[in-house]
Amino acid sequence: MIFPAILCGGSGTRLWPLSRELYPKQFLPLVKEQTLLQETAGRVVGKGFAAPMMICNADHRFLVDEQLRDVNIKAGEIVLEPAPRSTAPAAAVAALLAVAHDDDALVLLLPSDHVITNTNAFTTAIETAGAAAKAGHLVTFGMAAKGPETGYGYIRRGPALNDIDGVFRVDQFVEKPSREAAEAMVTEGGFDWNSGMFLFSAAAYLDELAVMEPVMLEACRKAVNCGVRDLNFLHLDADAFSKCPIGSIDVAVMEKTSKAAVVPTEMGWSDVGSWSALLDIAEQDDKGNAIVGDVVAEDVTGSYLRSEGPMVAAVGVDDLVVVATEDVVLVAPRSHAADAKKIVERLKREGRSEHQIHLKVHRPWGWYQGLDAGAGFQVKRICVNPGARLSLQYHHKRAEHWVVVSGTGLVTCGEKVFELTTDQSTYIPIGERHRLENPGTAPLHIIEVQSGTYLGEDDIVRLEDDFKRE
Question: DSSP assignment of 126-156, as one string?
């Protein structure tokens, strides 16, 4: 049995402003109707696969749960890392959980934010790698190097394994190279891009980690054994995991082990690392443009134009990236599109919020979107999913006015519980305990006007919460 372990961390800063800290690229439908995470999980459902393990941070736990539920995939575990520790500890946690179910378990470690267009080639590569993993090899997948990319690591193939067709020993791992070094490797041949995907026996990986990173293994073991389960989540023990060294699986294990093997393959793979990379895999018009959303383009060539909000109009430009959201517009030549991360770093330094959240903020009960704000007030649109409810709460410094736009709301305000329907409204005084829930079968939409001396999200005191948030 293969236990998929899908890594759901990462902030995708090079795809800002669409990808943001609290809603990064793996949760976005960048290429197809499904999100990258949903596509990744969908590739490992079926015969031979256990239910996927999802490894993420606490901020994203409800997003992961909701997105899997939307495509009818049930996770085997949703594992919450209390702190980022890179891929080697994540692989250790996955191996420990897998071997607890099956002594002979194989772990398939997958990033959640990659695109694979040839699923048949993906399945064939997994089958080939599975034979090597059962024989004790730690297998990675090498993508055919189509050019001298400097944003990828490389794998140099060694001799073929005698007993398994299509698998080679790893001769060398090469970190992201200079342009000259990348050109030399492509010219020489025998090098593949390092995809960051791995398949190995759980027991074999743990044995190697015990020799190479014993402190890491012990910290992960304690974090799992002392972890706490609630709702659909496994919270790794924070104290134990904090003692775990940070390390990638490449550096901590694969570069040191004598068991490293690689399956070269071509599966239409991309790590979608920049807007320019997204243009390369997107459907293009006859002028080489990828156009998404409300866009009007005249005499435009070789450009990626996308709007998630206002209309974008472009005239007479070439090799450009324009991405518009409801609150941000990014404009860059394709050659500098990956430098969007520099804007993210600047926004962090300046204490702004556009790198972190969108105007529409997703919550486990639904979402809210900022509409307007000024001195002492702000206006939000709130959507509560059918059957969901917000926490029972109160605020120290703000009052709230609610107007129902559509649907039916059940309101708790102090000792009163009553229904509100379309065009009806109510007032929540400062300090009053209150709750909003949707007892209906259609989404509940309200307009909320907040007024007070402080309107931050941290002025929420939760008394009861279905989602066990603090």
Answer: HHHHHHHHHTT-EEEEEEE--S--SSS-EEE
Under DSSP, the state recorded for 318 is B
DSSP 36-94: HHHHHHHTT-STTBPPPEEEEEGGGHHHHHHHHHHTT---SEEEEESS---HHHHHHHH
State how far the alpha carbon of 100 is from the alpha carbons of 4, 47, 240, 280, in Å: 14, 20, 19, 42
Asked if residues 174 and 200 have their Cβ atoms less than 8 Å apart, the reply is: no
Three-state DSSP class for 237?
coil
Assess contact for 302 and 286: CB atoms under 8 A.
Answer: no
Read off the pLDDT of residues 430-468 as tens digits, 9 standing for 90 and up. 999 999 999 999 999 999 999 999 999 899 999 999 998
Which is it for strands 320-324 and 360-363: parallel, antiparallel or unpaired? unpaired
Could you tell me the two tokens for 205? 């990986």
Which pLDDT band, with edges at 50, 70 and 90, does 10 fall under? Answer: confident
d(CA 118, CA 140) in angstroms, rounded, equals 18
Neighbour-count burial of 403, counting CB atoms closer than 10 A to its CB (0-12 exposed, 13-18 middle, 19+ buried)? middle
Burial state string for 231-248 with b = 16 or more CB within 10 A and e = fewer than 16: ebbbbbbbebbeebeebb
For residues 204 and 136, give the distance between their C-alpha atoms in angstroms, rounded to a whole number.
6
Give the separation between CA 143 and CA 140, rounded to whole angstroms: 10
This prediction's pTM: 0.90
Query: Domains (ranges, CATH) in the chain?
Result: 2-270 (3.90.550.10), 275-344 (no CATH), 360-464 (2.60.120.10)
Evaluate whether 234 touches 54 at the Cβ level (below 8 Å): no
Spell out the SS3 assignment of 429-468. CCCCCEEEECCCCCCEEEEEEEEECCCCCCCCEEEECCCC
**Are 154 and 140 contacting, i.e. CB atoms less than 8 angstroms apart?**
no
Distances (CA, A) of 460 to 360, 391, 394, 395, 437: 19, 9, 6, 5, 17
Q: Is 35 helix (H, G, I), strand (E, B) or coil?
A: coil
